[in-house]
């Protein structure tokens, strides 16, 4: 999403991040690489964790958030300016420090959002948060953006101060000053990376359904306002992540996923496949081109339903770490479901489980036998495991996690991405996949 858009769609979730510890490595001249722990919102390490919930209840909550997120992504894709979303749909959190001296804060991190914002004093109206609210008067590096600054183009101007407004579909909102500040990322070993001149929203009027565990949102999308692009000089347009499987996330485990930034994050090796990263609007999202899906020796061509926007079939699926399920056009889903039913030798279960319709009785290992599954992206044949597309929804029952999503835009969700090291190279415009045991990465 462009920085000069008056309104922003913020769909918290993920893209990508969370509470983290941070290690800094030298990687070539004047290039920093750093690695963060990604802690899922349902992890025991998250303030959102409810220890009384079973893994299946946590899964049901994740599915509910996935359906909500996909709905708003599709609305944003069809109408990027008229923006509505749900702020509490975030899957990952991120601990950052803002200002000089740095003040720690916890935010929802999202690859489906660009603008970063946090609550700021003085508060016209602020929601309660566990940590201190950022006070820009106490920071020597804080600056507001004036109306004549090119960054203010398209925003609201009041008393020579550039203002922003974000409205959410559930009537939540944030309003405040578009500002510039230093963001610091700290490791448990005491090493720090400080990035100056980050554009963010200093929110003085914030309310709705936000919880007290977080103070705002950090945007990691593809638009100019995102942290990823604002840190371009430091990370040279490169980042990667490795997401642990769902069963490790939900079973009261302290296992964590990881995300890496910088030149050392290049994904390479003989088992790596790479596909072009397609640039199109809205620029917030990361687009790939899916040509088809194979089940065994049968291949289904991926046909996108025609819409009015030109170039739709080039970049026909969003890769999104913040959406749990994978969404495909309705017609393609029916063909895929039919092929799977003919290919799977297991007892079909009638009914819907958490919104999932193609379900089977599992074996004693909680899985079913499925022929080889391959997602055919441009120049990249990505072999998926059974757990990438089926998950156990209740004891003894597994369901397909690819679902019909209408015909606006398709989404390659985080279950399908688990146990791959996935690298984004925004300079070369490509995404690379390397099979990896992410619990050991």
Automatic annotation (TrEMBL):
Natural source organism: Solanum commersonii (Commerson's wild potato)
Classification via CDD domains: pepsin_A_like_plant (cd05476)
Name of this chain's protein: Peptidase A1 domain-containing protein
Database matches in InterPro entries: Aspartic_peptidase_AS, Pepsin-like_plant, PEPTIDASE_A1, Peptidase_aspartic_dom_sf, Plant_Aspart_Prot_A1, TAXi_C, TAXi_N
Protein family per UniProt: Belongs to the peptidase A1 family.
Signal peptide limits: 1-27
Single GO biological process annotation from the record: proteolysis
GO CC annotation, single: extracellular region
Compartments in which it is found: Secreted
Keywords: Aspartyl protease, Glycoprotein, Hydrolase, Protease, Secreted, Signal
Molecular function as annotated in GO: aspartic-type endopeptidase activity
Residue span, Peptidase A1 domain: 92-434
Keyword Glycoprotein: yes
């Amino acid at each position: 999403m462009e920085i000069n858009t008056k309104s922003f769609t913020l769909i918290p979730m993920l893209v990508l991040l969370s509470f983290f510890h941070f290690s800094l490595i030298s990687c070539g001249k004047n290039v920093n690489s750093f690695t963060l722990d990604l802690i899922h919102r349902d992890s025991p390490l998250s303030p959102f964790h409810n220890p009384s919930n079973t893994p299946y209840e946590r899964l049901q909550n994740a599915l509910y958030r996935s359906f909500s997120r996909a709905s708003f992504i599709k609305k944003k894709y069809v109408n990027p300016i008229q923006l509505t979303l749900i702020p509490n749909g975030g899957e990952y959190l991120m601990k950052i420090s803002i200002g000089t001296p740095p003040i720690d804060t916890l935010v929802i991190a999202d690859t489906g959002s660009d603008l970063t914002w946090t609550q700021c004093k003085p508060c016209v109206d602020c929601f309660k948060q566990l940590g201190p609210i950022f006070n820009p008067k106490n920071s020597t590096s804080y600056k507001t953006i004036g109306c004549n600054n090119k960054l203010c183009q398209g925003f609201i101007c009041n008393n020579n101060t550039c203002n922003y407004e974000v409205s959410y579909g559930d009537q939540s909102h944030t309003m405040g000053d578009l500002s510039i500040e230093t963001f610091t990322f700290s490791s448990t070993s005491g090493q720090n990376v400080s990035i100056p001149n980050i554009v963010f929203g200093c929110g003085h009027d914030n309310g709705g359904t936000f919880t007290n565990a977080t103070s705002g949102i950090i945007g990691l999308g593809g638009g100019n306002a995102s942290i990823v692009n604002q840190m371009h000089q430091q990370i040279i347009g490169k980042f990667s992540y490795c997401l642990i499987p769902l069963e490790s996330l939900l079973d009261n485990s302290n296992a964590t996923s990881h995300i890496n930034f910088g030149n050392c994050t290049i994904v390479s090796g003989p088992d790596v496949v790479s596909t072009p990263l397609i640039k199109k609007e809205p620029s917030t999202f990361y687009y790939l081109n899916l040509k088809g899906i194979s089940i065994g020796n049968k291949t289904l061509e991926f046909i996108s339903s025609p819409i009015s926007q030109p170039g739709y079939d080039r970049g026909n699926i969003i890769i999104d770490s913040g959406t749990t399920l994978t969404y495909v056009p309705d017609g393609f889903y029916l063909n895929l479901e039919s092929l799977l039913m003919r290919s799977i030798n297991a007892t079909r279960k009638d009914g819907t489980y958490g919104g999932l319709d193609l379900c089977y009785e599992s074996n004693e290992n909680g899985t079913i036998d499925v022929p080889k599954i391959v997602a055919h992206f441009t120049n990249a044949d990505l072999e998926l495991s059974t757990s990438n597309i089926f998950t156990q929804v209740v004891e003894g029952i597994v369901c397909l996690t690819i679902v019909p999503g209408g015909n606006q835009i398709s989404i390659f969700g985080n279950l399908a991405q688990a146990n791959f090291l996935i690298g984004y190279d925004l300079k070369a415009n490509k995404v690379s996949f390397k099979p990896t045991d992410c619990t050991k990465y």
